[in-house]
Write a structure and sequence with these properties.
GO terms for molecular function: DNA binding; sigma factor activity. By secondary structure, this protein is an alpha+beta fold. The chain has 2 domains: about 140 residues, Butyryl-CoA Dehydrogenase, subunit A, domain 3 (Up-down Bundle), CATH 1.20.140; about 130 residues, Nuclear Transport Factor 2, Chain: A. It is about 50% helix and about 15% strand. It contains 11 helices and 6 strands. A 6-stranded mixed β-sheet has the order 2-1-6-5-4-3. Helix 6 crosses helix 7 and helix 8 runs antiparallel to helix 9. It is globular.
């Protein structure tokens, strides 16, 4: 249930709320009508319908969002059993960002068909459409995101190795080494949501991104900020931590062709609270 809700919403907090509401509805319904013939199908239906309604109401908030919107990260080290889901490419930050271009119903059909492998006949009653209509919706949704669907190097070992090299180059202030690890058209996106200092537009190009990151490293070094290798949404990532160990940000790395092609930096503290203690980036210089 969480797996469906998270892929639909890209938000851990909203997905948790959806699952809780779904459990309550299922409990009330079974109290009234008795046992359910197919519990999995019933849970999927209730969860998906609530997620669709939640996403519709969330769209307006995201339109008013300050700067780029990115999904809330899930770390492989997250031990909360409520957050367990298969961390594959369909929960990568890049993929979830692409799904934002779909309508709530399109997103539901796409997730149920592409990710969970549901037949159109099974999807139809969930989204209150015909099977034929669901097939058309899926085809339209897949075409809409086809050009931007992320490709990842097949070897996880190679991706982790590149992430380690990237952190080493940053720590050594090696700009030429950084540029070799970045794709020429690399994209760096930051999500501060007005709650943390962040660039308001995506940054493009290896030279610009490398210089920007080294500038951040020099400033962060003076404030006791450090980087920690991790895994976010099934992809290599870097955690930014303050001198006290509090989490300041999560940078997910997308690797293709032996180079980093996208970097998504979640800085909004509202999106990091489920990962532990969160620091205040605005307060760091003053504290120092």
């Amino acid at each position: 249930m969480f797996s469906i809700a998270y892929r639909m919403l890209g938000s851990v907090a909203e997905a948790e709320d959806v699952v809780q509401e779904a459990f309550l509805r299922m409990h009330r319904s079974t109290q009234e009508t008795g046992e359910v013939d197919n519990l999995d199908a019933y849970a999927t239906t209730v969860t998906t319908r609530i997620a669709i309604d939640t996403l519709r109401s969330a769209r307006h908030r995201r339109e008013q969002y300050v700067g780029p919107w990115l999904p809330e990260p899930i770390l492989v080290s997250d031990e909360d059993p409520a957050h367990r889901l298969e961390l594959d490419e369909t929960v990568s930050t890049a993929f979830l960002v692409l799904l934002e271009s779909l309508t709530p119903v399109e997103r539901a059909v796409f997730v149920l068909r592409e990710v969970l492998g549901y037949d159109y006949d099974d999807i139809a009653p969930i989204v209150d459409k015909s099977a034929t209509n669901c097939r058309q919706i899926f085809t339209r949704a897949r075409k809409r995101i086809a050009d931007g669907t992320p490709r990842f190097d097949p070897s996880r070992e190679r991706r982790d190795q590149l992430a380690s090299q990237f952190v080493a180059a940053l720590s050594a202030n090696d700009i030429s080494g950084l540029e070799r690890l970045l794709a020429d058209d690399v994209v760096f996106v930051a999500d501060g949501g007005g709650r943390a200092p962040a660039i308001q537009k995506p940054m493009l190009g290896a030279v610009a991104v490398a210089r920007f990151l080294l500038g951040l490293m020099r400033q962060g070094g003076r404030l006791g900020v450090r980087l920690e290798l991790s895994d976010a949404n099934g992809q290599p990532a870097m955690l930014t931590r303050g001198a006290d160990g509090a989490l300041l940000g999560v940078i997910a790395l997308d690797v293709d062709g032996g180079r980093i092609v996208r970097m998504h930096n979640v800085l909004n503290p509202d999106k990091l609270g489920h990962l532990g203690e969160v620091g205040d980036l605005f307060a760091l210089p003053a504290e120092r």
